[in-house]
Amino acid sequence: MASLSHDAILDVLCRLGVKDLVRFRCVSKPWCSTIDSPDFIKRHLSHSLKTNTNLSLILPTAYIFSVDFDSLETPQRLKHPLDESDEGKGTDILGSCHGLLALMNGDDDYEISLWNPSTRRSQMLPFTDIEFPPWSIGFQFIVYGFGYDPISDDYKLVRMVQFHGKDQDSVDSEVKVYSLRTNSWRRVKDFPFYHKDQYQIGVLANNALHWVASKKRLSDTRSFVAAFDLETEEYRVIELPDCLDMGFHMSLNDMEGDVSLVAMGGCLCLIANCWGAYVDIWVMKEYGVKESWTKLISAKQTQHLPTVSPLALSKTGDKMLLNVGRKFIWYDLISKKAEIVSIGDVPSCSRAEVLVQSLVPLNGSVYGSDGESLEIGKE
């Protein structure tokens, strides 16, 4: 080892999983310092994202389970920071980014935590009031989104509260952004559109959060994709494929959180329900370029295909993992064949998150608060 250069050692270490890296902090003080350094944490994360490695599938049911994405075997129940407070009543996942999960107590909209399942570090968010307009007596619903701003090197949670407007055909909103760097909330520009569904979570792609929306008048039913840029904190509309841009019906979320807009491999994907006849899955291969929308799958809509959500591509890129209703399916994009995947004894669920394992710190540390070496994956 003494003959290896520092760059060679870094090249080896950045290819390892988080569990091994936490153990290898004990090898020597230089290794500990290297693994804990911000530069190495970013290098390790970048390598995992580029090579599509160190991935876990997060399955939220009444509890939260994790399973290795490569094998889809031996799921583990994760003990998260809201476990004791929700008492098995369900914890909502508000988004994921760079190995961090944003969690909310299923019974308490004000109890929110950021959590790194790989290092078991967490941070509870401070409470922030809802600023009601003078004409409002309540709000319709709240939607969230979580992501990363590379300019300020900050993780942000966005909360959008949608109110009834001054008349029955309009809506208003209040938008606040939580900054992990400052551990505080602040008010930003209101959402200029109407959220179509109260159960949708902001979809992260290209450093922006995306929701299905329409114009502020409730009578305008035309759907489109609205984005909130985490860098500029400005809003924009994403152009859709030509066959959809005159208005289309998105497959709406249900009470259990099925989605019609997702991110896959860093790309924005949408599921267009063509009036109950068939379901199309589109991917925007080059973000912001309308001509790059590509149809990946077109399936007939039947009672056996209630909802379809793409989760991730295989490492070779020739298969797609789909969440179909309450089942997981590997779909071969070349042969057009499907294979049902069984994931242990995990209760059926209608949503999943693909999470990269990372050393991204919370509370200023990448390991336990008392400095112990963590056994990643164990409670």
From TrEMBL:
Residues 4-44 form the F-box domain. This is F-box domain-containing protein. It comes from Hibiscus sabdariffa. The lineage of its organism: Eukaryota, Viridiplantae, Streptophyta, Embryophyta, Tracheophyta.
